[in-house]
Specification:
Chain lengths: 339, 133
């Protein structure tokens, strides 16, 4: 559960019950499992996502064959980045997820698909899936590929995407990961033309002691034929979406528990620097919108009265490279819990 | 303080020849009286991994698996046995499971308490080898 108060500069504050999540699991046997995750976003659902969304983020069967190879099929989380598969509010600092995990890696990113996963050696884990691809007709300048998620809703799979992740969790407190996603996303257009999209991502988490946790993530997206994509969408809608051919973002985060192990709970402080640009490289004939070349500092604190309950507060200083459009800083308070 | 102690019968897993004892302690350093040498393996648990996730012991060795969570409650279940305990939340203590296998084989363990979106990734293996590791 994730309940937020957000206030941008020069705007009124807003209260938002951002996420209400129900998880289900059932074991048909020791080798055949079901996992389901149903999420209500923004508390209230009406047509065309004007208010909230009801999302089936996970619903899959796992066939557990061996440690090294298992089979999975259904609605799956795309195995990219730190947050997308590990997004319970008490496990990350900050009221809102990092910008990089929103406009570069479009979490929560889930699609219908199937694949294999397993572990080899001492802590080397992998997953490799084929999934429904992104829809390039809904890409944008500000949020990149985020609008293109099909979310398993009668999704086009004429040319399935491929995705995978390898991570190493063999040393206590350390997790290293790398992910990719590649697919052809132009299926909406007639005559059809291919829009190959490739995402590459690396990340690390390191907690050398009970008090310290650090994170880093880098992600980059390439969109081939972005010029033709812009031309086509401009002809269809009359509006130039100004989609880039390259998007990039990274962040560095450090957190420290100033109170640890106390009966009344734990207190941590953190800082995060992010740099993210959804207009990094433009196709010939298109100029970047500098307001989408952004960086931010987020500083804040969290209080855990219980390891499964987090009260968070933070302030984000957001900047961009535009001389015309000013970025709005943001003050946030959040309450997150899990059971 | 010992809050749970279980002694499984000899031959509970006749096909694997395992003898398993489990106990959960809320403070470190507690255990059962020993009749032979006991090895200890520390396991750190967090969403969504056990570290280490592969443990190698020689047949006939008794090992105490001391399991500590970095976040929420997790479960620790050894498939094919009746070991299925709760690992306390961060800061609430350590769960200890005593494990002994007379014959070589692979024993799969997993998180048995739904702990989040990646719960199903939480698996590991105890590899019992013939002699040395």
């Amino acid at each position: 559960m994730d309940f937020h108060f957000n206030k941008e500069d020069l705007q009124d504050g807003r209260l938002d019950f951002h996420r209400f999540v129900l998880l289900f699991t059932h074991s048909f046997s020791d080798r055949l499992r079901f996992i389901g995750e149903l999420e209500l976003e923004h508390a209230f659902v009406e047509g065309f996502e004007k208010a909230g969304e009801l999302e089936l983020e996970q619903a899959y069967l796992d066939v557990l064959v061996a440690r090294s190879v298992n089979v999975r099929a259904g609605m799956l989380l795309v195995p990219v980045g730190i947050i997308n598969e590990r997004h319970e509010p008490p496990v990350y600092y900050g009221v809102e997820r990092p910008f990089v995990d929103t406009v570069i890696v479009p979490s929560t990113w889930f699609e219908a698909g199937a694949g294999v996963h397993g572990e080899v050696g001492r802590g080397v884990r992998y997953r490799a899936y084929v999934m429904s691809p992104l829809d390039a007709a809904r890409f944008g300048a500000e949020e990149g590929v985020r609008g293109g998620r099909q979310k398993g809703a009668n999704a086009n799979v004429g040319r399935p995407a491929a995705t995978g992740r390898v991570e190493w969790v063999g040393h206590p407190g350390l997790a290293l990961g790398g992910s990719f996603w590649t697919g052809r996303s132009g299926f909406e257009f007639r005559p059809r033309f291919e829009v190959p999209v490739t995402l590459f991502e690396v990340d690390a988490r390191y907690a050398p002691t009970d008090r310290i946790e650090t994170r880093a993530q880098f992600a980059q997206i390439s969109i081939d034929r972005a010029g033709e994509l812009n031309d086509t969408l401009t002809r269809q809608t009359g509006v130039n979406p100004n989609i880039a051919r390259s998007l990039r973002g990274f962040y560095l985060e450090a957190g420290y528990r100033v109170v640890s192990g106390a009966q009344a709970g734990e207190v941590g402080v953190f800082g995060r620097y992010e740099n993210f640009d959804t207009q990094r490289r433009m196709p010939d004939g298109y100029l970047p919108l500098k307001q989408f070349d952004r960086d931010s500092w987020t500083v804040g604190a969290a209080y855990w009265p219980d390891p499964d309950v987090a009260v968070k507060i933070d302030y984000t200083f957001l900047r961009n490279q535009s001389e015309v459009v000013k970025a709005a800083n943001m003050f946030n308070i959040g309450l997150g819990w899990w059971f | 303080m010992v809050v749970l102690m279980r002694q499984l019968r000899l031959g509970y897993l006749p096909s694997l020849g395992a003898i398993v004892t489990a106990l959960v302690a809320q403070s470190p350093g507690l255990g059962l009286a020993q009749t032979g040498p006991v090895e200890t393996v520390e396991i750190r648990v967090e969403r969504f991994s056990f570290t280490p996730s592969q443990i190698r012991i020689a047949a006939g060795t008794t090992v105490d698996l001391r399991i500590r969570s970095e976040d929420t409650n997790h479960g620790f279940r050894v498939i094919g046995s009746d070991i299925d305990i709760v690992v306390p939340k961060r800061g609430r203590g350590t769960a200890t499971v005593r494990f002994r296998a007379e014959r070589p084989g692979e024993y799969v363990f997993e998180c048995s308490k739904l702990c989040g979106a990646g719960h199903s990734f939480m698996r590991g293996t105890i590899v019992v080898t013939e002699g040395g590791r």
